[in-house]
Design goal:
Length: about 240
């Protein structure tokens, strides 16, 4: 990866300060989780009743609330792009991140997964729990609907919008890798308490970092100069001359 590429083409001080702030908070929360687990393991005498709020895998903890804030920021920026920049194609992305926020805060995929298990009588297979298969059904169903709108918007969009979509798709693929793929690996492989801690940090911590990169990119779209026509995906291939 050519890091000089980012230094040359993504050097906006405002957006980079935002990214630094987001990543600093992410790493602080990830480190706090690891530290608390270590202190619990060595049996430090402390009131651990509030420690759970700092765990990255706690759906009602501070790290998850920080994730909600990121989703909300992305949604606001998307609304701005749609209204002020006439970016109608961003409606599909708005639907996607709104669903992600509702899903994380209201546990849609867990609820749907349990319903699918009862409705279709899923049984554990391929090393996955029945609940995992139910949640994959949720991803396949709603993912295919959103994918249709995203592809439709891509086809109808201009050249600039298409290139932005490629960047967003790459960042979102990174987010899905940690949020879905690592979660499935978690169920497929055997682990002890040490590898379990590592998987939690990789899965939830990686998801936090990936979402921070997405937030940074949306700020970049709003604050970049009008003549800025360089895109992230161009860092991964050599243009033909």
């Amino acid at each position: 990866m050519k890091f000089i590429f980012f230094k040359e083409h993504f050097n906006n001080k405002k957006t980079n300060k935002i990214l630094l702030l987001l990543l600093s908070m992410d790493f602080l929360l990830i480190f706090t989780h690891a530290l608390l687990v270590f202190l619990i393991y060595i049996r430090i005498q402390f009131d651990w009743s509030k420690a759970d709020m700092f765990m990255v895998d706690n759906d009602s903890g501070y790290p998850e609330m920080f994730q909600y804030l990121k989703y909300f920021i992305v949604i606001l920026i998307l609304i701005y792009l749609i209204l002020k920049k006439q970016g109608i194609g961003y409606i599909a992305w708005l639907l996607l991140f709104t669903l992600l926020l509702l899903d994380d805060s209201l546990l849609f995929h867990e609820t749907f997964g349990s319903w699918a298990v009862d409705k279709f009588n899923y049984q554990p297979m391929f090393g996955l729990r029945a609940q995992d298969l139910g949640e994959l059904t949720y991803v396949a169903l709603f993912g295919s609907i959103l994918l249709f709108f995203l592809v439709f918007g891509y086809i109808k969009g201009d050249s600039n919008y298409k290139k932005i979509n490629i960047d967003l798709a790459l960042l979102f693929a990174l987010f899905l890798f940690f949020g879905v793929a690592i979660d499935m690996i978690d169920q497929l492989i055997g682990y002890n308490r040490y590898s379990y801690l590592a998987l939690i940090l990789i899965e939830d911590g990686g998801e936090m970092i990936a979402l921070s990169l997405i937030v940074w990119y949306f700020f970049h779209l709003v604050l970049k100069p009008n003549n800025h026509n360089v895109y992230l995906f161009e860092n991964f291939y050599k243009s033909k001359k």
